[in-house]
């Protein structure tokens, strides 16, 4: 298969003023933002690592307006960078310099179109914030189980496009398992209506799957049919002190034996990560002594009102303590205490951002290989990168661990020194994960950040097939150029 089948971008000569005037005819002049004061918040990624240079931020209000604007961009050779809540962690929603581009912000497509409790589905527009979707599901006596730290700002289109994961993947799967249908504006402006609400549909290729996790490189998602689940009426959470990652892996197995599918979340934080969250975010505190090398957070939950979640978790953890798997455990005795426990987990990204220059990785390996992986990368990072503090945190039940390197400010005084160290950290972590049969990106995607590394880690045939798909959907290469694939 050919190495590249995406047409190289012609260097379009765009009359920006004329182009933006036409865009304004489609969506209204006040929805075309060009002044730096209005666009600044959209042009930079959440981590503050990438500065975009879009001609304008466009804010269409419905699918027809998105289609009109995308068709206009295609006609003028202007690149389209879709954007939701701009909470992505790999620079995927930033417009690269060097090519005329617009940021297509979907936040105004924010209607819940329908909720169908009988079919256990909800149809939401791309700009609906995750918290709103969860509230709408709860109001209909159902639950939408996806949950991540950015719940108050990330949006349906971004969640679908990054195939987001979060803390509920162990039980419910990631976004791919929660999407039944999509509506997508294709790169030429056509609207593909794949908004089917079916759990069984084997009539040909499952096209929606191609857009899930495509990071806006194949089209603009405007709405999605999402799968709902029964509401949880009983739940309990606990913090567990562990001596090692192996203990966490063994504990998962023990809890699965006792509690089956009722494990709602199973997350780990290294002692260094707990320390960082506690020092960077006021008011957060671990319920256990700081001496345990790892803090494990576990939640169990079930829809049946008669089940005593607290007693079941306490009994299972009793077995773990007896077996020597756990050093200590603290059950959260009420919802407020459980919330405080989970706040530790959900403030990790924020704490690390505040801590200074942190290098965060989002790798996965098969669960049984996690102890080996963590031991290997920790020893290598501490041995080869001066002034680094290594933290681990993440969705250990899914084999997805974030290896985070915090670089001392006194050692890395310049941006260049930080970037060089970041490259070294990433290389060590990614090489180790691939060697153990893992992935360089478990849930955050490739974006701008990991393009070169994807080229090195994926087999040539995988890359060639991906490029062919990209070329089939977007032969002119207007959709989110430079993301996943090199420009
Ligand atoms: P954006 O950041 O706006 O965009 C992300 C990507 O999707 C970009 O490539 C963009 O071009 C594309 N895109 C956006 N909207 C559309 C659309 N309508 N059509 C086509 N393409 C589109 N992620 C996890 O998976 N698990 C976690 O546990 C997790 N925790 C997080 C915690 C915090 C505090 C933060 C800040 C982020 C976290 N993330 C996590 C990352 C992030 O929240 C997710 O990637 C989320 O899915 C991004 O949604 P968004 O609406 O902000 O998308």
Number of helices: 17
CATH topology of the largest domain: Uridine Diphospho-n-acetylenolpyruvylglucosamine Reductase, domain 3
Described by the principal axes of the CA atoms, the overall outline is globular
Helix percentage range: 25-40%
Based on the coordinates given, report the CATH architecture of the largest domain.
2-Layer Sandwich
- Measured on Cα atoms, how large is the radius of gyration? 23 Å
According to DSSP, the number of beta strands is 17
How far the N terminus sits from the C terminus, by CA atoms, comes to 19 Å
Characterize the largest beta sheet: strand count, sense, and whether it forms a barrel: 8 strands, antiparallel
Uncertain segments:
1-10
- Residues in β-strands, percent: 15-25%
Heterogens: flavin-adenine dinucleotide
How many separate domains make up the residues?
Answer: 4
Cofactor: FAD
Keywords: FAD, Flavoprotein
Family: Belongs to the FAD-binding oxidoreductase/transferase type 4 family.
Pfam families: FAD-oxidase_C (PF02913), FAD_binding_4 (PF01565)
Features:
487 residues, Uridine Diphospho-n-acetylenolpyruvylglucosamine Reductase, domain 2, Uridine Diphospho-n-acetylenolpyruvylglucosamine Reductase, domain 3, Alpha-Beta Plaits, 4 domains, five-stranded antiparallel beta sheet, 17 strands, disordered N terminus
